[in-house]
Design a protein that fits this description.
The chain has 21 helices and three strands. By secondary structure, it is mostly helical. Strands 1-3-2 form a three-stranded antiparallel beta sheet. Helix 9 crosses helix 18.
């Protein structure tokens, strides 16, 4: 009889008191098939503890050698600390064996257990410094803050970003705890879906993989559209808008060829400082010039609130004065306020790729340090920038904000810099998006070669143009930039950052808390011992230890779900209105920033 829910999908059916479950003839981890449902929670946890112990010993050795690992060393790491030696082995691990060990469907009988774990070590090269730069590469976050505050007002805007930032950090901590408890060299965790599979089963994995694929594809598409808008503005709208967007889809064919996150580290580093340059440049210009009234007609906070606050007087042609609001600008405009709120969600949407980041780290424990530094960095500069720009532009704040300044020369400078940093961010999203598709579809169902092999690299190069073209087509069909970002934020980003982490942590805490003395995995026999099962076991796991944290996570998860529903409704309503104006779509030559 099948288990009644994915929560119990650990393999076997331990319903009898004192049951011993597992396979009669133990199969080594290297022989197991991909996403083997017979592997139970206790086995994953056992090997995870072994891996963490080995990593901790490595850290102790590094400290003895004088390696610096503080927060400042994370942000301003030396050149030597950015490159981590790939797994240690005696030279017997040939390229053929590496390829066999790198794919769950390879001929694992030709590699030994030591070669299998050494191959897993060799694939982990990213450092905490690289993680800091990768998390802070998000190009869509900072330049939507003035727009978000413009639709919510001073008080709600600050509260929005503060609460979302704190909860995003909490979610990152939960994902980190689960990763440390379930990932190992023997059973590597590679994606968010893998995490869901080990706690809730196959259905949860497919759901999260599907949503992650949609989000990453839309992220890439949104950046293509943003860069297309920037290029159209630089060209003074003389270049067809559809061509402006298509150029960046084609540019992604080349950027997407970078395959490892460690290689993206220096690109992400450059993107951060480019974004900061745009932030300070835009602030300086906004303080000494008028807003871009033309662009504000279609992409500003005032436009999202109905348009009356930014429309010129029909008789004099004069634009309304800049106004600010302590609270909601228009309490009756529910859709506009929620769309602004969704921009805040977008700013903290990095949790969706945290598992992929940790999976390529040599020391996953250091992830928390890199994430904490990145979250503080993001919050400080987002608040500084958003409040400053709102103070000078009010309801005329445009999304993205660097397109909302009036002097053409400064518009062009901001657009050109943003194009470069945006392309780097899109490359990062595309990199992870293709890996999700490659690992969960091509390898699992079509038996594609591993990415470390020559054939895998060729196949990767062929997939990248298809992925970027599809991203462009999907995004181009959406006739409203902030409507697109709001919809993606509600349907996907909010789930991965605020809904799924407490759901996953709840399942993890219950399964871990339910374990009694004398229970667990025996590596000698490959069996898992459990003394009971069912509701009694789940109740013990829920109440054992920090039960109040489990209660809070349920409240947190339900609140996030309600917010997602409101956000999706508001984004869809905004897009319905936008579809009534087909001229602002990316399949036309008319740029949405051109009010002529």
């Amino acid at each position: 009889m099948a288990n009644p829910s994915g929560f119990a999908a650990d393999g076997g059916d331990p319903r009898l008191h004192g049951a011993v479950v597992g396979q009669a003839d133990y199969v080594a981890p290297r022989i197991r098939k991909l996403h083997d449902s017979s592997i139970m929670f206790e086995e994953y946890h056992y090997y995870a503890e072994l891996t963490r112990a080995e990593e901790d010993a490595s850290v102790t050795s590094s400290h003895a050698d004088g390696e610096k690992t503080g927060v400042m060393a994370t942000i301003f790491s030396s050149k030597s600390s950015k490159v981590v030696k790939q797994g240690s082995h005696d030279g017997s691990l040939t390229n053929e064996k590496m390829a066999a060990a790198a794919t769950p469907l390879g001929n694992h009988h030709q590699v030994s257990d030591d070669e299998w774990t050494n191959a897993a070590r060799a694939l982990r090269t990213a450092t905490a410094s690289a993680i800091f730069y990768l998390i802070t590469t998000d190009i869509l976050g900072p330049f939507g803050v003035p727009f978000a505050i413009g639709t919510t007002g001073w008080g709600p805007g600050v509260a929005l970003y503060s609460v979302f930032g704190l909860l995003a950090a909490y979610s990152g901590w939960m994902l980190w705890k689960i990763f440390l408890g379930l990932d190992s060299y023997h059973y590597p965790l590679n994606t968010y879906g893998d995490l869901a599979f080990r706690i809730y089963g196959r259905t949860a994995r497919h759901l999260m993989n599907s949503l992650q694929t949609i989000q990453l594809l839309c992220n890439v598409g949104a950046i293509i559209i943003s860069n297309g808008q920037a290029l159209s503005q630089v060209s003074k709208f003389k270049l067809c808008y559809a061509v402006c967007c298509l150029i960046w889809a084609i540019a992604g064919f080349a950027v997407g060829q970078v395959r490892t996150l460690q290689k993206y580290g220096w690109l992400a580093n450059a993107a951060i400082w480019l974004n900061l340059l745009i932030i300070f440049m835009t602030m300086g210009v906004a303080a000494h010039s008028t807003p871009n009234y033309a662009a504000a007609q279609g992409a500003s906070a005032g436009a999202a609130l109905g348009g009356d606050l930014v429309k010129p007087d029909p008789t004099t042609g004069a634009y309304p004065p800049i106004v600010h609001f302590a609270g909601l600008p228009d309490p009756g405009n529910f859709i506009g306020a929620i769309n602004g709120l969704m921009q805040g969600v977008y700013a903290y949407g990095g949790a969706m790729v945290f598992i992929e980041f940790m999976s390529e780290m040599k020391r996953p424990r250091d992830f928390l340090k890199g994430m904490a530094a990145a979250q503080l960095f993001i919050y400080f500069f987002y608040m500084l920038y958003g409040l400053f720009m709102y103070a000078y532009q009010g309801q005329y704040a445009v999304n993205p904000s660097y397109q909302g300044i009036e002097p053409y020369a400064w518009q062009s400078a901001g657009n050109v810099i943003a194009i470069v940093s945006g392309l780097i961010a899109a490359g990062l999203y595309g990199n992870i998006g293709v890996k999700v598709l490659y690992n969960n579809i091509l390898i699992e169902f079509l038996h594609a070669p591993p990415l470390t092999s020559k054939k895998g690299k060729i196949l990767w190069a062929a997939i990248i143009p298809v992925y970027w073209t599809l991203a462009f087509i999907i995004a181009a069909a959406i006739p409203n930039f902030f409507g697109l970002t709001s919809l993606v934020a509600a349907v996907c980003i909010l789930q991965f950052t605020y809904t799924f982490p407490p759901l996953l942590y709840l399942g993890y805490a219950i399964k871990k808390g339910a374990m009694l003395p004398g229970e667990g995995f025996d590596p000698a026999t490959g069996r898992v011992v459990r003394h009971d099962a069912g509701v009694k076991r789940w109740a013990r796991g829920f109440t054992k230890g920090a039960w109040y944290l489990n209660v809070w996570n349920i409240i947190y998860m339900l609140g996030a779900g309600v917010t997602a529903g409101l956000g999706a409704y508001s984004a869809i309503e905004a897009l319905i209105a936008a579809f009534a104006q087909p001229q602002i779509g990316a399949f036309t030559c008319h740029s949405p920033l051109d009010n002529a």
